[in-house]
Recover the amino acids of this structure.
């Protein structure tokens, strides 16, 4: 399915993820339990200057709700930080009917289906990269990408056709890759924040860099 930015609801490409998806469809038939699509601002693809790339949907978060980073702690920190810098309104309440809107920003995952134990394997990451590649191709005004965690970072670097050694992962590290500003962050998971690996101030610092790079919101 080259060139297709969103996998179908019953995407068959990764057998292990398909099996996990089917298991949870049987257990929780009212959940989303399908590939989670990219979340776009009201202006659509042409309005996107910033793309946030996460790892994969959380089991009881995006896999349940169908919206990236919605339903688990990672979304609380991400959307509050986006709102702080004007990349989202301040309406996030972890529900798809909360009135959340993004500004200049889109949010996606490097792997679109929930993996067991939140750990995709290498073949799944590589297979799903076709969708990230197609997503990037649909964003003509994209200027900056924030990658959350090493897996998302490395997959994004590879999608952009660069060597990992030329843009190594590091918290708040910035690289120019393929004409885009690439800024990496530790993932905003509860585990990382509970252990102190990522503090709110550290996460804010990443998006401060983004805001200074992109400049003021167009009027």
């Amino acid at each position: 399915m080259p060139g297709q930015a969103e996998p179908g609801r019953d995407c068959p490409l990764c057998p292990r993820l398909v099996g996990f998806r089917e298991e949870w469809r049987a257990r929780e038939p009212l959940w989303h339990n399908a590939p989670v699509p990219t979340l776009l601002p009201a202006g659509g693809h042409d309005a996107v200057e910033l793309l946030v790339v996460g790892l994969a949907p959380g089991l009881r978060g995006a896999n349940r709700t169908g919206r990236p980073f919605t339903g688990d702690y990672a979304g609380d920190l991400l959307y509050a930080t986006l709102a702080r810098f004007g990349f989202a309104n301040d309406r996030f309440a972890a529900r798809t009917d909360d009135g959340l809107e993004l500004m200049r920003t889109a949010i996606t995952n490097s792997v679109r289906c929930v993996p067991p134990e939140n750990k995709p394997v290498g073949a799944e990451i590589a297979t799903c990269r076709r969708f990230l590649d197609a997503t990037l191709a649909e964003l003509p005004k994209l200027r900056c990408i924030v990658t959350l965690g090493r897996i998302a970072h490395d997959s994004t670097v590879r999608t952009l056709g660069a060597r990992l050694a030329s843009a190594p992962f590091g918290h708040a590290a910035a690289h120019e890759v393929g004409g885009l500003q690439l800024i990496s962050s530790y993932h905003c998971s509860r585990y990382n924040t509970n252990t102190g690996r990522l503090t709110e101030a550290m996460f804010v610092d990443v998006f401060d860099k983004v805001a200074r790079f992109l400049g003021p919101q167009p009027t």
Notes: The chain has seven helices and five strands. Residues 122-137 form the longest helix (16 residues). Residues 13 and 127 are 7 Å apart (CA to CA).
